[in-house]
Design a protein that fits this description.
Largest sheet: 3 strands, antiparallel
Radius of gyration: 16 Å
Distance between the termini: 39 Å
Shape: globular
Number of strands: 5
Strand order of the largest sheet: 3-5-4
Length: 158
Amino acid sequence: MEKITRLALYVINNSKKRRLILGISAKAFGRIIGKSEEFVQNIESIRRGHYLHIDFPSIANALNWEIHDLLPPDNSPYSDGTLVDKVVFSLKNPSDAEEVIVGMKEIDYFKQEKSLNDIFEHLYLTENMSEKRKVITDLLEKLVSNNILKLYNGKYLA
């Protein structure tokens, strides 16, 4: 597994989470930031690579953020140069998926009713991504049972 700095991993995971919340595909994000369509897919996988500091302004702009929103808080351990395993944010991980769904709620995605297929399309989860789809489905059930989302006639609403 590739080793990258904690800061590089933070930026990858923070930007991927925001990209998913906003419903931007990896390919579209690559085009928006002036890179190839495969660039973001490679960065967000366990393949080699990370975003360069020179890319931070275009990444932040594409995510409707300021650069400081992309970076960790001041005085955090992320900027000490320590190398860590490149473990990237994933919708296969229930806690990562919950951060995305809650983030979608926070930007009013669920202000209007959304079907499960609407949510899958927003997250670019195709039919062959059954593991991620199951995590999202299970998570939505949990959020409904915890009264974070409501379910009416098969559609989710905040």
